[in-house]
Amino acid sequence: SSLDISTWIRLEKPRTKSKRIDVYYYPPSKERLRSINDVKIYCQKNKLEFDPNQFNFKPTKANTRFEEKSECHNETSSDSVDEASFVNDIFQNEIYMTEIPKTFKETQISPDKEKWNEAMSEEIKLMQNRKVWDLVEPKSNMKVLGCRWVYNIKHDEKNNVKKYKSRLVAQGFKQRPGVDFTDVFAPLVNFDIIKFLFVLLVCILGWNHYQIDVKGAYLYGNLDIPIYMQQPEGFVLKGCEHYVCRLQKSIYGLHQSGRQWNLELSEILFGLGFHQNDLCNGLYTKSNCILLVYVDDIVVFSKSQSDLEN
């Protein structure tokens, strides 16, 4: 099923004896997840759709708590936080310890309103260029899905803010199995395979490697079932307020989006002469070149620079 990130808590917890800030995510079960791999395992265990782009494990602030303490300061019990109680209070009182907005309305009262608006406009422009939907008049028998904005902040290697990111996500949890979607399986290469091939091919054999991040990857996938969605908040077309979006592409949040993107990618790779591995469907080979696909990231290994460029 689809993952509703708005029901999760993101917590940044500064350490008192170092400058490090730990970032945790808490799903409604209040289980603490320390890394993107923990999130992936949790999603697999609970049969939730996993999208790594929805999670940011990099701190958004510097650890001023450490800088304010002297070197001789000893942490006392009063300094420590009862984390379980604190997280419980967050869920009960809906207090969020992050400046990343949860809703469109929050972006409009945020000090970074212009940056969030720019990020949303960029997402809408991308969808327009990809022809993700057209507007149609709703009919009484239409099942119309809602949608919402998901926000994130990307950082560089020095933890400086690199980019404000907005993603429009359909409420796929309202889709009807067998009506709005059928097959949802999409192959996903295991991280252990990526690490093994990197050590073998790059470190030992001296192969070249390159990583490709496909922007808006799911938006390349074509839908084979008609799906309708409300217009996104903040971007309702004037004069067509009652119209709905008829989706042409596999927008994020739909059950079948990962599969549709993978089918589109596979068709392109097959046309380029690549072959899909029978035992690992996320691995493609062609002469002296190997491709590994993980959601919207593609890792390329090649024996020579010319093979990599080709």
UniProtKB/TrEMBL annotation:
GO biological process: DNA biosynthetic process
Residues forming coiled coils: none
Gene Ontology molecular function, alphabetical: DNA binding
Domain MBD: 1-62
Domain of life, source organism: Eukaryota
Name of the molecule in the record: Retrovirus-related Pol polyprotein from transposon RE1
Name of the encoding gene: RE1_129
